[in-house]
Amino acid sequence: MLTTPSAPERDLVAGLAQPLRVLAEDGTRHPDPTLDPLLDDVDEELLRSLHLDMAVIRALDDEAVALQRQGELGLWPPLRGQEAAQIGLGRALPETDFLFTSYRENGLAWCRGVGPEEMLAVWRGTALSGWDPFAHHMATPQVIIGAQTLHAVGWAMAARAKREDALAVACFGDGAVSQGDVNEAMAFAASFHAPVLFFCQNNQYAISEPVTVQAAVPIAQRPAGFGIPALRVDGNDVLAVRAASLLAARRIRAGEGPMFLEAVTYRMGPHTTSDDPTRYRDEAELERWRRRCPLARVERHLEHLGADVEQLRAEAQRRGDEARTGLQEAVTALAAPAPESLFDNVLTTEPAHLRRQREQFRAFTASLAPEGAAS
Ligand SMILES: Cc1ncc(C[n+]2csc(CCOP(=O)(O)OP(=O)(O)O)c2C)c(N)n1
């Protein structure tokens, strides 16, 4: 039987006054009654591996920006600053949970084993869609803001109908919360107790629009209106994001319906490589967030624990370089597809009108061939 959440709003949201955090900026560990029970397994080894994952996705992201600047990619949406949010979530969930993301979640794609050639193809314009969603349990990037939340809820309903244990995760930004799709998805998920995690990376800007313009109260307060419980966590604290994701997934898997996480973070770079953030935000703000760097925070914590941080940095450099080389090699290996392949995979069976268009396109390209050239 479906139950209707009846808890008062204040019981549905945690972290409103101050986002939940267990690792302070200086690397000291602080207790948190909500998250601590999910942190029992944290040891030096786990901290090192979380750090290395964050270092690798930062290197990968930096390289993709460089490739765009060299003209190798048409566009790239950088994730710098959001490493803890993406690795914290990515490392908390089994691979059978299905991710529905927008374009900035390349760190999650990396966690799901998406290869560099699959990650770059769309941004180089050599494919309409980068990878096989079922091979990676991750849908390809959605550019229509918030649309993936509806796909996630649909997938979650199907998973439940098939009595699968998996949940769907819908990842989106602060700007997306103003979209109708996201609100419809939350209303539907709450009404039918869909096993879905709504994961909002609040990186403070929707292109140039600061979050304060569209949200007078913390974003995590909105799902309460739908009866969806929410946690607001420090999105630059990888331990907090991981623990909150584990908590949410456990609750959803237990059949308690959807849950919402707001990871409060910051996009350090431009919205995409086409954007100039100096036109809408100032250096002082950027500097404040530089001090909250998710990687430095884990390093400082490991230092407090007496770990060999120099060795860790060297390892991070080595793995980062490997990721960079992978991207460089992948980009040059991506071949331009035959123009006609535009018509492939549009629909599962080709209807007459599409076949006609394909023939017309073929005739048109043949008409462009120089006189006397073989067709
Ligand atoms: C439905 C729709 N409206 C507008 C756009 C143009 N657009 C692209 S990115 C963006 C801002 C998105 O901001 P946010 O949801 O916070 O995600 P972020 O890019 O910061 O990760 C907008 C408005 C779009 N892609 N889709």
From TrEMBL:
Its cofactor is thiamine diphosphate. GO terms for molecular function: branched-chain 2-oxo acid dehydrogenase activity; magnesium ion binding. It catalyses: N(6)-[(R)-lipoyl]-L-lysyl-[protein] + 3-methyl-2-oxobutanoate + H(+) = N(6)-[(R)-S(8)-2-methylpropanoyldihydrolipoyl]-L-lysyl-[protein] + CO2. InterPro entries: Alpha-ketoacid_DH_E1_comp (IPR050771), DH_E1 (IPR001017), THDP-binding (IPR029061). SUPFAM superfamilies: Thiamin diphosphate-binding fold (THDP-binding) (SSF52518). Its EC number is 1.2.4.4. Pfam families: E1_dh (PF00676). Residues 54-310 form the Dehydrogenase E1 component domain. One of its GO terms (biological process) is branched-chain amino acid catabolic process. Keywords: Oxidoreductase, Pyruvate, Thiamine pyrophosphate. CDD domains: TPP_E1_PDC_ADC_BCADC. Signal peptide: none annotated. The branched-chain alpha-keto dehydrogenase complex catalyzes the overall conversion of alpha-keto acids to acyl-CoA and CO(2). It contains multiple copies of three enzymatic components: branched-chain alpha-keto acid decarboxylase (E1), lipoamide acyltransferase (E2) and lipoamide dehydrogenase (E3). Belongs to the BCKDHA family. This is 2-oxoisovalerate dehydrogenase subunit alpha. It comes from Brachybacterium saurashtrense.
